Amino acid sequence: MAESAFEFVCAEIEQATSLNALEARGTVRLALKSAGVDARSVSAAQLKVILDKLIPSELKKRGCEHEDNMCKQITTRMAKSHFEAARAA
């Protein structure tokens, strides 16, 4: 089964920061909650906007450095990937 955009972003954040898998997933979920989006139904397009607007501040709160650049790099890698379709909530 193909990886979801949510799983991709969480794994990328885990690799790029000192956050563990649970912390990375929680950070992304908090940003999604702020945007009013559920992790089970978020699309890659929605995640790209959330990576630009919300996730950098969540990462900064957790002591991550270069959060804006990191999110831009993740967005670039997302554009080169294909994800399974988001499930309806």
List its traits.
89 residues; mainly alpha; 0% strand; globular
The share of residues in extended strands comes to under 5%
Radius of gyration: 12 Å
Structural class: mainly alpha
- Estimate percent helicity: 55-70%
Shape: globular
How far is it from the N-terminal to the C-terminal residue, by CA?
19 Å
Q: How many helix segments?
A: 5
The run of helices and strands is HHHHH
State the domain count: 1
Task: Determine the mean pLDDT.
Answer: 92
Largest sheet: none
Say how many strands there are.
0
**Poorly predicted spans:** none
Q: What can you tell me about this protein's structure?
A:
Helix 1 crosses helix 5 and helix 3 (44-53) runs antiparallel to helix 5 (67-79). The chain has 89 residues and is an all-alpha fold. It has five helices and no strands. It has one domain (5-79). The protein has helices spanning 5-16, 21-35, 44-53, 55-61, 67-79.
In brief:
By secondary structure, this protein is mainly α. The protein has helices at residues 5-16, 21-35, 44-53, 55-61, 67-79. It is globular and about 30 Å long.
Set out the fold topology.
Elements: H1 5-16, H2 21-35, H3 44-53, H4 55-61, H5 67-79
